[in-house]
Structures are given as C-alpha cells and as structure tokens.
Design a protein that fits this description.
The complex is a heterodimer of chains A (about 220) and B (about 600).
Chain A: E1 2-10, H1 19-33, E2 49-50, E3 60-70, H2 76-86, E4 91-97, E5 106-116, H3 120-131, E6 137-142, E7 145-150, E8 156-163, E9 166-174, H4 183-194, E10 199-210
Parallel strand pairs in A: 3-10
Antiparallel strand pairs in A: 1-3, 1-4, 2-3, 5-9, 5-10, 6-7, 8-9
Helix pairs in contact in A: 1-2
Chain B: E1 36-42, H1 46-49, H2 53-64, E2 68-74, H3 78-87, E3 105-109, H4 116-126, E4 142-146, E5 162-164, H5 168-184, H6 189-196, E6 202-203, E7 208-212, E8 218-223, E9 231-232, E10 260-263, E11 265-266, H7 276-280, E12 285-286, H8 289-303, E13 307-311, H9 321-334, E14 338-340, H10 351-358, E15 365-370, H11 374-379, H12 386-398, E16 403-410, H13 417-436, E17 446-453, H14 470-483, E18 489-492, H15 498-507, H16 512-521, H17 535-544, H18 549-553, E19 568-569, H19 574-585
Parallel strand pairs in B: 1-2, 1-3, 3-4, 4-5, 9-19, 10-13, 13-14, 15-16, 16-17, 17-18
Antiparallel strand pairs in B: 5-6, 7-8, 11-12
Helix pairs in contact in B: 2-5, 4-16, 8-9, 9-10, 12-13, 13-14, 16-17
Classes of the chains: A alpha+beta (about 220), B alpha/beta (about 600).
C-alpha cells in the first residue's frame, strides 16, 4: 500500500467541472487507468480520493492537488502515463509526490487574474487607488449568512502588468481551512469601487503555499 | 466545444458543463473528411437526455462509420436559452460547437409526448424553420424523428420531413447512405423524400392525405407518389448480432440515470393492456448470457463507471437471468461495481435472485401492482396475484428490506370505488405482514403508495378507451386518502392537466399540429417540468383552433373508427388489440407469451414462433 500525491492542471473547458463533479470525474479516470487503486474497507467500499483544496468553478489551475492510494507501489512515470491516458481534455497530471505536507498546512494561494477594459492605464490607476484605501469592505458569504469583512490586509498584489487591452494581476490570497478568499470576492469589490466597465477574462491558480511560505505539494 | 460567443456567459448559468462537451468518450472527427453530419437531438435537458440508452446506441453506431459524424444536442435550460437568444447564438452540437442548421440531418428522439414543444423550440433556437413547408428545396437539413412516440407521429407531421419507425440500428444507416448518394447528385428535398419513402420503416407524411368526417373522426388516409399503403416498423431479429456500443460518453455532471446499462432483452412477454412499450417493442428477443456479460464488462472498463444496470422492460423474464447474474456478479464484486436491476417483476422475483442482488446493495423495493383489486388487475392483464405480492414482500422483509413502494394507476377502464379502496387495503396487508413476522428486520417500516393517472396509448388494447376526467380523478383520490388508516402508509398523489394533454398528443391527429404550434408560440416549453407546464396556454391553443381536447382524450372510440395512425404498422394487429380489449371488459386474462402464443402478429418479422 502506498500513498501518492498528484499535482494536476485544470485548464480549458475542464474549469467548468464543479468540485463535486471533479471528484466523480477523477474517480472514473483512476478506475479506467487500470492502476491498482485502494478501496476503503467496510460495508460500502469506495475508492479513496482526497482533494486538500477546492477550486472555484470557472477558475483554471496549474497546481491542483489530489491524494490517492495504491495497493502496491508503482513508478511515478507509470502513474502519470496511465492517468493522463484516461483524463478528459484540460485535466493533466504533471507530477507525483509523497504526501508529506498536510491539508491543514495550506495557508495561501497565488492567482494570475487578467482583466480586460477599453482603457487599461485608467483601470490600472483605479486598481492602485482601490488597494490604497484605508479599508476594503465587502460582503462575504459565511455559514451564518452574509457578513461584512475588511479584505484590505488579505490582498497581497505581487505584480501588475499592462498589456494591450489587458491588465494582469498576480494576487496572493488566503486559502485553506482558516479562511479562504475567492478571487471573485476581490474582483467584485473592485468592480463596485471602479464603477467602470471591465471584465474578468481569466483566473488561474498558479501556486499553493504552506503557512510557512513553502510551496505545497 | 462551446461557441466563443457563449463562453463569457458560462458562469452565469447553472451547471455549465451541460454546454461544453469535452467529456471522455465523445467522438471528435475531422469535418473535412466527413460526408454526412447527423445532429442527434434529445428534446429535453442534458441531464435527462444523457441518460437515454437509445441515443447511446445510435450515437456510437453512426460514429463507427468513418465518414459519418453523429453529435449530441440537448435543450438548454431556460437560463442558457435566455443567454443564447440575447447573444444571438444558434443551437450547436456539443462535439464540434457548430450550428446544427448546417448539418445534413437533425434527428429527434420522441420518448414522451410532453417533450414535443421542446422540439419546436430547439428548431427555432437552431435557426431552422419550424414548419416543414418553409424549409424549401435544399436537401439539408433533413429534419427526422424516431423513438416510441413515432408510432403515432400525426401530431408532429407539420414539423418533420420524415419519421423512422421501429428500431434504428439498420434503417438509420440505410437512410444516411441514400441521402449521401442523392445529395451528391444534387436532388431536391422533395425528390429525396419520395425516394426515402421506399425504404422499409420510413414514413414521409407529406405523401399521405388525411380527410375527416364531420364529427371530427378520420374518414380516409390516401397515399400519393407510390409510397407504401402501410409503413411497417423495423425490427432487429437477432439481438446477439445487433450492434451494441463498447463505450459511452461519460458526463461530468450527475445525470438522472448515472450508470452504464446493458440491454438484456427487447420486447415483453407480459401483455399488460395499458403498457404501450409492451406492445411497441414486440417480439420478445433475448441476448445470450455470454453476450450480456461481455457487453456489460466492456462498458464498465471503458467508462470507469461503478454502477452497471441490466436494462429491459422486464429483466427477470430473461430465461438465463441466474446465469447472467452469477457471471456478472463475479466480475462486479471484484471490481467494486454495483449491479442494479431496475425492472424486476413481483411474480418471478425468486429468493435466489434477491440474494444475488442484495450482496451488493440494500435499497428500497419497488412494486407496481397497478390496480388495487384482483378483478381490475385481471382487466388490465397485470398477471400478479395478491398472494404473489405478499410472498415477495415476505422474501424482501426476510432479506432485511423495510421500505416498499407500491405504484398504482387511477382511471383505468372499468374502475370502481371498490378498486380504489382496494389500493389502501393492499397496502395495509403489506403493513400487517411485516408486523406479523416474528423475526422481522430491524428498523421502521414504510410503505408508500404512489398513483398516476392512466393515459390510453396507441397500439394498446386500451387505445379505444376514454381517459377519466380530472374531476373524477380528484374524487377517487379523496376516496383513497380516506381509506388509508395506517401511519406507516404514505400516499403521494398528483393531479394535473398534463395527463390530459399527454392523452391528446398520444392519440391526436394532424389537426393537433396547429395546437402544438400555437401552444409553443404562446410560450409553452419544458412541459414535463411541473414548474413550466401552463395548462391555460394549452387550452387557449385548442380554442384558437376550434378543437376540443376531450374529443381526443375522453371519448370512447369504436373498433371500426379509422385511427389517425391506421397506416402505421407496428406488427401487432388491430384484430388482436380488439380481442384483448374485449377480454378486458370480460375480466379475462391472457397468459404470458412464453406460456401460450396469443397471436398478436409480431412474430411475422421473425418468420417463426417467438418461443
């Protein structure tokens, strides 16, 4: 019996697969792959799969994580080859690791967000003004209903790039058990503040970090 | 593939993966190398349509031909329809993302009557003229339909070029081959239709004229252009040789029947007089245990599904059912696959079959006695006795089951209040049986009764019968409610004008086309969804066309009357249907085909007795 951690990409149309559906999709892919997957014991055995961090619908990623267990050890190359032969387009396993770090270690994630607008320099100026407010109040859905929170200290903007018609932002936001901020929370707040038309062209998760700043894999 | 114009709005709609394609198992081909493109349309949403076995068979069958490409199309949910209309995106096929109006064939499957307005809506969304007469002489798109409701296609003739009757495995390819030849020669739509009418099983309605008596019944159906007097459905005579897919498209989202299924047999030996499928799919033909095993295993391996169902009208009537279960269970146990048998019958539900099924999963049991008294069960030829129901429940209870669902129909021919009270009494006997068992299963018993309004259908012995009116159904429902005494019995009943519309569309004639068109124009769609069905719009459409729904739904038809589907031949003879109708009124049963042939006529396609 051996545990494996798979890092996989979720790109293209596969970003429209919801978290619940992704679980089912991976389950079938593992079954099709012919890898000797481990099933839970008990009355209704099921294939054991674990996703330490969910990804919101519509967001792409190059660093998703899935844990599973095989009844016997297999070379990493074989696992990648067999998984990729059975995955739908857009999902691609990129590397295999030992699952040393725990899901609770996850602290933040980095996203590449592209916004398109007719006047990109103007949008850039607005973005900077948005970030330099004293506080950025926004509504967040919690288990107890809508709650107003200040997200100013939670947004870490690492980089801003102006291209023609596109403003790219590299954002690091809290992720994991202790509080998760979706990119849409930030872009919705910015939309409200800017009061100028722009559209979110794409969002891609680039990295997942541990609380101590190490990359999670 | 999603059209570029739609992509920015995908996150504004529910379940976007309904609209993207890209699933494992979808077939992508090089457009420049395909000679004929077929848009297989299911007139309901993805979640429903993707559960349909017939579509899976024909999709793979057509795609086995290198130069033909079959793609899937479903009705968008209203949120997506709004986006498509607003952004002016035409209905597209999921595989290529191409607009289906440029396809060679647009083919609909007719599974239930209340999907008909969706067909009109989908044609409109596709930018294809909804009425056949407006499509001009260009040969494509050829708008065609098949499936069980094609047995009376008359309420749809204004919208289709042709109908495919019976089983499609051979005739679909024959039709596509003929189309390819004639299109390459540059012939017109009407020329092609004349030629297509010569293929057995193809019905071209524009080649038939219908006249009516003053009372509204059909006077005559006249043929033109050498089309056949009778159009006979197609049948695959050897199920072991009939194509069955080795792979299926595996959806991302959870669909209604989220499993792979292997068809174990076609037809039914039972002859329940209300059941249209039981007559339409005759004669009875089985696959061998070996073939069932091979096909089931291939589907599981290629799809990754962990549930396999054995599909048919009555799986336990397969002569080798135990052998099938033994072989499959050996495989499914090892591979952690659930085996489900949705169509078991009460009377031959043996202990050993139950034991086999319960090794996998224990869920509720569902029985369909259909009627509350033996007298009425004899009328409808549901050859199930109360003893058998009790014996089966006992086996089930001993096996640890504690929930039993009982399905009944209301408004059956000859039904009296006594028959309705019999429903409650039967359920009570099941409750008593449970509590009288010394070693009953732990847990609480729940017996639920669910009733549906009977809808008379063509090609059944009850095609002559009137449907019971809504007020009378309501009265019967209140009788049932009063008759149920135990708290262990839950009754769920439902009444709606949908049943009457279903009855009209099932036995309607060509004049119903105008009603359907006006109903759709006034906003009717997704009628099988309670939240969308709007009876007032339907009744307004009848009024506008000076037609009375009661004429179609609630009238007794004489044996001599020419039915709107008189020229359609499903092998089961009208003489047989009349004989069965008479026996029903005499409370006489007819034995299952395996015991005694009742001479329905379906075996003429086999050229031998069925058994």
């Amino acid at each position: 019996m051996k545990d494996y951690r798979i890092i996989f990409e979720k790109k293209g149309i596969s970003r429209y697969i919801s978290h619940l559906d992704l679980n089912r999709c991976m389950l079938r892919a593992v079954r099709r792959s012919g890898l000797p997957a481990w099933y839970t014991e008990g009355f209704h055995p099921h294939l054991y799969l674990m996703f330490p961090l969910a990804l919101s619908l519509g967001t792409e990623s190059i660093c998703e994580v899935m844990d599973f267990r095989l009844t016997e050890e297999r070379p990493d190359e074989e696992i990648l080859l067999k998984l990729n032969a059975s995955l739908p387009s857009g999902l691609r396993a990129v590397s295999v690791h030992a699952p040393d770090k725990q899901a609770q270690d996850i602290g933040s994630a980095e996203y590449l967000v592209t916004l398109s607008a007719p006047d990109v320099p103007e949008l850039n100026a607005l973005w900077n003004a948005f970030l330099s407010q004293e506080q950025i109040l926004t509504e967040k859905r919690t288990k107890k209903g809508m709650k107003e929170i200040d997200i100013k200290s939670l947004i870490d903007c690492k980089e801003i790039i102006e291209e023609n018609q596109i403003l790219s932002l590299r954002l690091v936001l809290p992720a994991g058990n202790d509080g998760n901020i979706n990119v849409s929370v930030v872009t919705d707040a910015f939309q409200k503040y800017a009061d100028k038309p722009f559209s979110v062209k794409s969002v891609c998760r680039m990295k997942i970090f541990c609380r101590n700043g190490e990359i999670f894999f | 593939m999603i059209p570029e114009k739609l992509e920015p709005f995908l996150l504004d709609v529910q379940k976007p993966s309904r609209y993207t394609g890209g699933e494992v198992g979808e077939v992508i081909k090089d457009k420049s190398r395909t000679a004929v493109r077929f848009a297989f349309c299911f007139p309901d949403i993805y979640d429903v349509g993707m559960s349909h076995l017939g579509m899976k068979i024909l999709y793979s069958l057509i795609n086995e031909r290198e130069d033909y490409w079959c793609e899937r199309v479903f009705a968008p949910w209203t949120d997506m329809e709004d986006v498509m209309r607003r952004e002016q995106v035409l209905l597209y096929a999921l595989e290529s993302g191409d607009e289906i109006r440029n396809f060679d064939f647009i083919g609909f499957t007719l599974q239930y009557e209340m999907s008909y307005t969706n067909i009109l809506n989908m044609l409109d969304l596709a930018g294809v003229p909804v009425l056949q007469k407006d499509r001009g002489e260009q040969i494509w798109p050829m708008v065609v339909a098949g499936g069980p409701c094609a047995c009376n296609p008359e309420p749809l003739v204004d919208f289709f070029d042709l109908f495919i009757l019976g089983e499609g495995e051979e005739v679909n390819l024959e039709l596509m081959d003929l189309y390819r030849d004639m299109r390459d020669k540059g012939v017109s739509r009407s020329e092609f239709l004349k030629a297509a009418a010569q293929i057995p099983g193809i019905y071209v309605p524009s080649l038939y004229d219908v006249e009516y008596h003053e009372d509204g019944t059909v006077r005559s159906i006249t043929v033109r252009e050498n089309a056949p007097e009778k159009i006979t459905k197609r049948v695959m005579t050897d199920m072991n040789q009939t194509y069955y897919p080795k792979y299926v498209v595996v959806p991302f989202l959870e669909i209604v029947h989220d499993r792979v299924s292997v068809e174990v047999l076609r037809g039914c030996i039972r002859g329940c007089r209300f059941c249209q499928a039981g007559f339409l799919y005759r004669p009875f033909r089985e696959k061998s245990a070996e073939i069932v095993f091979q096909q089931g295993m291939a589907l599981c391996e290629n799809s990754g599904y962990d549930e396999l169902s054995l599909s048919s009208l009555s799986t336990s009537d397969h002569s080798q059912i135990e052998e099938i279960l033994d072989r499959l269970l050996e495989y499914t146990d090892k591979e952690h696959i659930n085996l489900s048998l949705p169509s078991l019958r009460i009377d031959n539900f043996s202990k050993s079959v139950l034991d086999k099924v319960t090794t996998i999963r224990k869920s509720g049991l569902t029985f369909a006695p259909e009627a509350g008294t033996q007298r009425l069960r004899d009328v409808i030829n549901k050859n199930v006795t109360e003893e058998e129901i009790m014996r089966t429940c006992q086996i089930a209870f001993e096996g640890g089951y504690t929930t039993v669902k009982l399905y009944f129909m209301m408004g059956l021919p000859t039904e009296t209040d006594e028959d309705i009270i019999g429903i409650a009494e039967l359920a009570q006997k099941v409750v008593n049986l449970f509590y009288d068992m010394p070693e009953r299963a732990k847990g609480k018993l729940q017996v639920s009764i669910s009733t549906a309004t009977f809808v008379p259908k063509p090609f059944t012995p009850f095609q002559f019968e009137p449907q019971t009116e809504k007020a009378e159904i309501l009265r019967k429902q209140s009788i049932l409610k009063k008759a149920v005494k135990s708290k262990k019995i839950k009754v769920s009943m439902h009444v709606s004008d949908i049943s009457q519309m279903e009855a009209v569309l099932a036995r309607g004639d060509r004049r119903i086309c105008a009603v359907l068109y006006d109903a759709w124009k006034s906003g009717c769609k997704l009628d099988s969804w309670d939240e969308f069905f709007d009876a007032s719009k339907w009744y307004a459409a009848f009024e506008k066309n000076h037609l009375d729904p009661a004429f179609y739904a609630n009238r007794t038809r004489s044996y001599e009357e020419i039915t709107p589907w008189e020229h359609i031949d499903y092998l089961v003879s009208k003489k047989f249907l009349i004989r069965e109708n008479q026996k029903a009124h005499e409370e006489q049963t007819t034995p299952p085909c395996r015991e005694h042939c009742s001479g329905c006529g379906a075996n003429q396609c086999l050229g031998r007795p069925c058994f």
